[in-house]
Design goal:
14-stranded antiparallel barrel; about 50% strand; globular
């Protein structure tokens, strides 16, 4: 029985323990969306300019010329966890736009074996039930062009919903702010400040369900965990340049600097902040076929001999766009070079101009 209880305890503790201020709270909101962006190692803060800007930098929504819809799916941990994303955005006028996006990261059909052994000590498999743990992020975006030529801003209001079967659930709220600036010679700059108000999650724990695992593992689950957590702010700064060759060929080069205000294993880290760069390239042909590559997630990994080794996460992607429909694919960790999540990611983007 103990292995089953330990597994369930791990699921609960990841989401509920150390709730005051956590380094990795609401991490499902940091995985990223859109295979085109992930193929460039997410180095898109400065030039994101479509429906997916609601996630990457809401200021980019001002570039919309028509309504757009985006869909994405990927699986992690040998298809145990599913990551899904849907978004819609539309221009309000020639100076402003709005967007709505939804992210779901979930593990479904988890065996609940807390009641496997009854009060008499008998094993009864009929007492096994199933539950799911699911995280939802709903984002409302608004963007507007400023009077200064080439300068745009955007704001996100986020609602976070996290559910762990009948054991616990939480609601969270937060804000993001983004800015983009484009020069006359095709240089683009972007800044995205995530969780600027510190996204706050408040948990509700089912005490009756908690009692079923209390003291099941000696020395663990003695008291109810704390019921609040705070996601600290993050800053992403990007720059990109689009170059055109012989009219038909383009090359987009982009770089990001991702800053967390905490000390972790990023390649540059201090007690005040940690910095992680990302680089991406996109080669395009006649604005129809795209080939992408990127590298990011540079980490100082501690080895068994207590030494540190630098790891990184390379990515690769392809895309095809025709008549308002764009299909993209990305593989987000070539050769399993890093310990980060990796997956085959597919996404679809639909421009409503095809209906006119």
């Amino acid at each position: 029985m103990k292995p089953y209880i330990t597994t369930l305890f791990c699921v609960l503790s990841v989401s509920l323990f150390s709730q005051t201020v956590r380094k990795y709270s609401n991490e499902f909101m940091n995985i990223g969306v859109d295979a085109a962006a992930l193929g460039m190692s997410s180095a898109v803060t400065s030039h994101s300019a479509d429906v997916n800007s609601g996630y990457w930098n809401p200021a980019g929504l001002t570039n919309l010329e028509d309504n757009q819809l985006a869909l994405m799916h990927s699986s992690y941990f040998a298809n145990i966890a599913n990551y899904d994303y849907a978004a819609f955005a539309m221009p309000l006028d020639d100076r402003s736009a709005v967007g709505l996006s939804l992210i779901r990261f979930a593990v479904d059909d988890i065996l609940n074996t807390t009641q496997l052994i009854d009060e008499q000590g008998n094993i009864n498999y009929d007492r096994i039930s199933l539950f799911s743990t699911a995280d939802y992020g709903l984002t409302f975006s608004y963007a507007r062009k400023l009077p200064i030529q080439g300068l745009n801003y955007g704001v996100n209001a986020k609602v976070i919903r996290r559910i762990i079967g009948n054991f616990a659930s939480s609601w969270g709220f937060g804000l993001d702010v983004g800015i983009q600036f484009e020069t006359d010679n095709d240089w683009k700059f972007g800044v995205m400040a995530r969780d600027i108000t510190t996204t706050y999650n408040s948990w509700s724990i089912n005490e009756d369900e908690f009692k079923t695992i209390q003291d099941a593992v000696e020395g663990q689950n003695q008291e109810l965990p704390e019921t609040t957590e705070i996601t600290i702010p993050k800053l992403q700064i990007g720059v990109s340049k689009l170059m055109t060759f012989h009219y038909d060929y383009t090359l987009l080069a982009a770089a990001n600097v991702n800053v967390r205000f905490e000390e972790n294993n990023d390649v540059i880290s201090s007690s005040f902040a940690s910095i992680n760069p990302a680089l991406g390239l996109e080669f395009g042909y006649i604005d129809m076929v795209y080939l992408r590559a990127g590298v990011g997630n540079f980490q100082n990994e501690r080895q068994f001999d207590n030494s540190e080794q630098l790891s990184f996460q390379p990515s690769f992607g392809v895309g095809f766009k025709y008549n308002g429909i764009q299909i993209d694919y990305a593989f987000t960790d070539i050769g399993d070079q890093s310990i980060a999540l990796y997956s085959n990611v597919f996404s679809l983007k639909l421009n409503f101009s095809i209906f006119r």
